[in-house]
Amino acid sequence: MPKVIKSAPKPNPFDTLDARHILDEHELDELLHTLSTRFTNMQPLHPSLSWTTVQDALVHNPELQASLAVMEATGGELTCVQWQHDETLSWVDCSEQTPQGRRALCYDLAAWQARKANKPYGDAVTYAQRLGGRLLNQEEYLYLRSLMDLDTKTSSWLDTPSTVRELGGALFGDKRYATTFIYHNGADSYYSARGFRVRIDMTI
Known about the structure:
Layout: H1 25-41, H2 51-58, H3 62-73, E1 78-82, E2 89-93, H4 109-114, H5 124-130, E3 134-135, H6 138-147, E4 155-158, H7 162-165, E5 169-176, E6 179-186, E7 194-196, E8 198-201
Parallel strand pairs: 4-7
Antiparallel strand pairs: 1-2, 2-8, 3-8, 4-5, 5-6
């Protein structure tokens, strides 16, 4: 009888989201350089902030550094956002399309567990929490969209009200035909062009 060779388990591409580690000096310098350049180029998102103030807060927070490094590595192109309604400062994924390294996921763990076949690797809400943040909600997404183009070819899961989620649905946002749409899908659905954007608050 020929020997049956079992193939190795397929690696989970989202393991990167669990691979946070304290950055060494070189890694931190690279991250700060990337964030500083983007901060300058996206000033309308934080009109009354200076990079020096932000950097001083960031260099004393190694856990946040680790989360931001993973967000950056998975395509988030993050920067600081100063929310208009309360001036809270957050780090947010601002890539034009939903982050490349965080797509094809169910909405949350309950949806993933309920799916009987063809399960994806995981869910958006859980991975956002592991990064120390949460999904953007509808109001935050629309505010970002008022300042920049988002999801012209993709879509992003959004934090969903319990009244919708309890009925099996979840919200997502995208832009088509020069218009931003907030719409719904079953929470257990997943698509190669749908990911999620994270918000992580920071105190300065």
